[in-house]
């Protein structure tokens, strides 16, 4: 997607990093470049608006789901096993199931 005009920041760069911009995960200098690009490029501005609307819709529809109790502990248990170089079993793992040394990694 491009408006066919040359820009300081190429359309492909803007579109490749659009979610970083939407999620405020980029440096302020890059944000400024993107904002300037949106002022010049209506196709990219339209794509930004569409993705922003989708993100808001997902948050509104799915943002209130409760995380099941114990899920964080299970995920952290698997991460610790992987970090310690152990094989990950098929069953659920909790931090309390790990050997003492693996819990501190």
Kindly describe this structure.
This is Anti-sigma factor RsrA. Residues 11-44 form the Putative zinc-finger domain. InterPro entries: Anit_sigma_mycothiol_RsrA, Znf_put. The protein is an all-alpha fold. The protein has 2 domains: 11-62, no CATH class; 71-103, no CATH class. It contains 6 helices and no strands. It has helices at 11-16, 18-22, 28-40, 42-62, 71-83, 100-103. It is elongated. It starts with 10 loop residues before the first helix and ends with a helix. The mean pLDDT is 81.
Would you spell out the secondary-structure blueprint of this structure?
Blueprint: H1 11-16, H2 18-22, H3 28-40, H4 42-62, H5 71-83, H6 100-103
Helix pairs in contact: 3-4
* C-alpha Rg (nearest Å): 21 Å
Indicate how many domains the architecture comprises. Answer: 2
> Low-confidence runs (pLDDT<50, min 5 residues)?
none
Helix/strand order: HHHHHH
* Overall pLDDT: 81
Structural class: mainly alpha
Please describe the biggest sheet, giving its number of strands, its sense, and whether it closes into a barrel.
none
Tell me the number of helical segments per DSSP (H or I, 4 or more residues long).
6
The share of residues in extended strands comes to under 5%
State the end-to-end CA separation: 45 Å
Instruction: Based on Cα principal axes, name the global outline.
Output: elongated
Helix content: 55-70%
Tell me the number of strands: 0
Observed structural traits:
2 domains; 6 helices; elongated; mainly alpha; 105 residues
Give a brief outline of the structure.
The chain has about 100 residues and is mostly helical.
């Amino acid at each position: 997607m491009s408006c066919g005009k040359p820009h300081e920041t190429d359309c492909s760069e803007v579109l490749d990093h659009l979610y970083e911009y939407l999620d405020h995960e980029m440096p302020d200098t890059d944000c400024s470049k993107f904002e300037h690009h949106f002022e010049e490029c209506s196709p990219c501005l339209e794509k930004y608006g569409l993705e922003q609307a989708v993100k808001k819709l997902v948050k509104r529809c799915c943002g209130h789901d409760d995380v099941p109790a114990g899920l964080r502990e299970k995920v952290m248990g698997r991460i610790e096993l992987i970090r310690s170089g152990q094989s990950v079993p098929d069953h659920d793992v909790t931090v309390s199931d790990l050997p003492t040394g693996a819990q501190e990694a």
